[in-house]
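Batch manifest, entry 17 of 40.
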Amino acid sequence: MRPSDGGRLIAFTLLSAAIAQQGFAAKLTDLEHTRIEYPRPAEVPGDAAMEAAGAVIGKIDIDIRNIFDESDARESNGLYRLADRLHIRTKPATVRAQLLFASGEKYRARKLAETERALRLLTFIYDARVVPVHYADGKVDIMVITKDVWTLSPGISFGRSGGANSTKFNLEEENLLGWGKTLQVSRGSSVDRTTDTVAFSDPNVFGSHWKSAMSYSDSSDGSQRSALVQQPFYSLDAPWSAKATALSFDRTVSRYNLGNIVDQFNDNQSAYELSGGVSNGLIDGWTKRWTFGMRYDRNRFLPTGTSTPTPPTLLPPDRTLSYPFTGFDMLQDKYKKVGDENEIGRTEDLYFGSEISGEIGLSNSVFGANHDAVMLAAKALRGLELPAEQQLFLTGDFASRLEQGHARNLIADAGAKYYWRWRENWLLYAGLSGTTTYMLDPDMQLLLGGDNGLRGYPLRFESGTSRALLTVEQRFFTDWYPFRLVRVGGAVFTDVGRTWGSGVVGNSDPGLLKDVGFGLRLGNTRSGLGNVLHIDLAFPVSNVAGIKKFQFLVQTMQSF
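Output type: structure tokens
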């Protein structure tokens, strides 16, 4: 691609934004949002004053609000009242299990803010506020307000990306009897397999910070069983963590070239982990954690059988990695509440601090491995607030293993996300990411296509040893709130990307690929079953033989 081509693509996005500014449908007058607004009483002193006075927490009240507000005439019709009656509201004990403070403890404003963030991470809670509401005689009374969403999903869902459809027949409850537990029974079909699944998870076992999860899946190409018991670092002050996991997975692996399956083989995987961690908590704005544990990861590769039309010419060698490991994590306490950025009508907690983590392990035959290797991993991220309503988020990841002094299965990622709110309800987004690899294991591929960012092309279209992707997107947020169920937004976008190098099944590099498109965004305000529905039309710009003139995509995603 000539340098001017990239400029024209970015100009297309900005021009579309300018056109839409003139012709986009006028916003409706419904300015009331479903986010919880609970002003702090004026008579309550500031946080710094109460902390300096040594105030302690007094009474803690829990206010759990239903899906619809029946005191609002717009939400008091028969259908909405029926939904509230059928919905089992979250139990106060479920919310209390997430609190990071208790009556009698010293008042710390940051613990209230961290509790809010923890509550908003739960799929069955739409929004949360934790507010000091009364102060007298050295005691601070706290009000915890949450808003429920509909969590029972009986029915059929459909998705489409990269020219491939996916369907799901599902019965799932994400807040079983109001206790916050998830029970799922489903049947799903994707381009890879058809799967029947039974799963259960509990984010607060017996009201504690322990988590548990179990699942069983029977697929057209194998099965999966998994189990998890964990107490994570649930807060910045959590002094320790513990984790035990087990996974057994038998599946067919397909390797792709130009969107077509080149060959297939079976991967029989077993993986286990027993680990823990310690921390001194938050000190001077930073939390430092040390982790340690043991991992076992075995992959056995087998032919898929004579019925497979694309058997591999050479099976990947079996691989068993077994190693003790230790790691560290440094995390800065720096968050900010925003709205209408990655979601619509929801409170978002963005991270504007720095985090650095690393890990090293030693795989050896003494521990049952067939690969002697040094296992390495590192991660860094940084969030920056810039002038004029601009933000920049930087990430980097690295993982590899050293065998006989040489890197193997090296994967390095870097990314940047830029946001500019140049108008109240208009947000310009740009994302740039790159990945490079070295000596990838033959059962792995680095792919780029309609399923991971290049929306105008088939899924898994390009493969190689390195890739890069640029996305520029003008996002529109409106106050249109049809039936008081979904918030409506829109986007025009362009994607530019390519891969380099010859992958394990050959070179599928047709050069730089470009697409443009537009789409509708529906922000889900009443259900915990996916946050934003994407409905997109994407048009490939590059002239590649055999590619359709447009791609129609329907996806439920966690962000805009």
